[in-house]
Structure formats: structure tokens, C-alpha cells
Design a protein that fits this description.
By secondary structure, this protein is an alpha+beta fold. It has nine helices and seven strands, in the order H-H-H-E-E-E-E-H-H-E-H-H-E-E-H-H. Keywords: Signal.
């Protein structure tokens, strides 16, 4: 399954399906890129290998909120590397265009690994059960069958997410401390305007996605997840 999914995701990223429709809400200050800098960039792109970047093969789009402040909500574009059957890692951006700002990172682990974590550590992790079953987490641009298989793999996993640039609030530069982010766990929590806007840009219907995932088997959320205990509050 992993080979099939990786192939489908890589193809989707290479062909650009489902991307380039979400602009960053932030304009970073600074002078325009000079001809010298552009030449250096082109040279580096031609000559240097980037194995960690090349390993990114999956694009997921979902929503986060600040631990301790559910009013602070935002869309999050995840670019994921599948490290093995139990661990994934994602870099998170505020858009899917070239100038998207790096917001943070998410580590995704299997239920088996989550259950082995110390109780104190579990408080930083959120479940993906609701995100998958509700249709609010999507993998744009890939065939429905491949997305269904991918979501069946993700549904019982757990994520630990830190945002370092709060682009919903800081519109110029990354300011302040990193923030622990959480995933939504029930209907009525996510701002419906955010969801409607995402559906419009991706030309989709979350209600239909939700219905199509009714057959994805789930486990009860493991004890200790979704407790939202951040070491610092914004």
C-alpha cells in the first residue's frame, strides 16, 4: 500500500493537481530579489541535491487551532514525508503557492506508538479520527480510491504540531513563541466560514467527502490524547 500511495502522491505533486489555489495571507517585508540572488538560487537548484525535500510525497490540507484558544483557527497545508509505517513528518505552510510561509511542523505517529508514550508526553498530541471522518482533512489532487486508502491509514494516528509563524496574526514576520496546535474533535468547533472557503477553492463538498468515508474503520481515541496542555499559552 505504501508504494501505491507514494506513487500516487508523487504524481499528484509533480502534476500540481489540487495546488496553487491558496495564497499566503502574509507579505514579508524586504527588498525584491536581486538578479545576483536569483542567479545564485538557480545555480543552487541545478547543482545541489535535496534528499529530505525530495522525500516529501504527500499533500494534506486541514485545519488547526491554538491550544488554549479555539477562537484562533486557520487552514494548514501539510507536505508530508512517510518515514515508515508508524511515523510521518510534515512541514506546514499557510498556502500552497510559491510564496507560502512556513508555519510549523507536525509529527504523526501510529496508535501503537502513541500508546507507548509517557502520560505527560501524550498531552501534546491530538487524534486524527474526527478530522478524517468529518472530511475536513483532505489530500487534494489524487484519485478518490487513493485518498480513501490514505485516510484509512491516517484515521487512527496522532499528531504533535507546533507553529512557529502565526500567520493569522503576525502579518509581516514570525513573532513570539512557538505555539502548540490542536486538531478539531467534534462538529461545531471549526469556523464554518473557513470550511466554505476551502470547499470553494478546491471545488469540493466536505459533506460528500464525509459520506464517502463512512466505511473507514476507526478505533476509540486513545486515553491521553486531545487534552491540550501547552507548556506556554499565547
Amino acid at each position: 500500500m505504501r508504494a501505491l500511495l507514494s506513487g500516487c502522491m508523487a504524481l499528484a505533486l509533480l502534476t500540481g493537481c489540487g495546488a496553487h489555489n491558496s495564497a499566503s495571507p502574509v507579505t514579508a517585508p524586504g527588498a525584491p530579489v536581486s538578479a545576483k540572488t536569483a542567479a545564485l538560487e538557480t545555480g543552487a537548484a541545478t547543482l545541489q541535491a535535496r534528499p529530505p525535500i525530495a522525500a516529501i510525497n504527500t499533500y494534506l490540507d486541514g485545519f488547526h487551532y491554538y491550544c488554549g484558544d479555539r477562537r484562533g483557527q486557520m487552514e494548514a497545508h501539510h507536505y508530508v514525508t512517510i518515514l515508515n509505517e508508524d511515523v510521518m513528518q510534515a512541514v506546514i505552510f499557510d498556502g500552497n503557492q510559491r510564496d507560502a510561509k512556513l508555519m510549523g511542523v507536525e509529527y504523526i505517529i501510529s496508535e501503537r506508538l502513541f500508546k507507548q508514550l509517557p502520560a505527560q508526553e501524550k498531552q501534546y498530541w491530538h487524534s486524527h479520527r474526527y478530522e478524517v471522518k468529518s472530511g475536513t482533512l483532505i489530500a487534494p489532487g489524487i484519485p478518490d480510491a487513493a485518498e480513501h486508502a490514505l485516510m484509512s491509514k491516517i484515521v487512527n494516528t496522532y499528531g504533535k504540531t507546533w507553529h512557529t509563524w502565526h500567520t493569522d496574526r503576525d502579518k509581516t514576520l514570525p513573532l513570539g513563541e512557538p505555539a502548540l496546535m490542536m486538531g478539531f474533535t467534534a462538529d461545531g468547533q471549526l469556523d464554518s466560514a473557513l470550511l466554505r472557503d476551502r470547499d470553494r477553492r478546491f471545488d469540493m463538498n466536505t459533506a460528500e467527502v464525509r459520506e464517502a468515508r463512512r466505511d473507514i474503520p476507526t478505533h476509540p481515541v486513545a486515553a491521553g490524547a486531545d487534552t491540550c496542555r501547552a507548556p506556554h499559552k499565547m
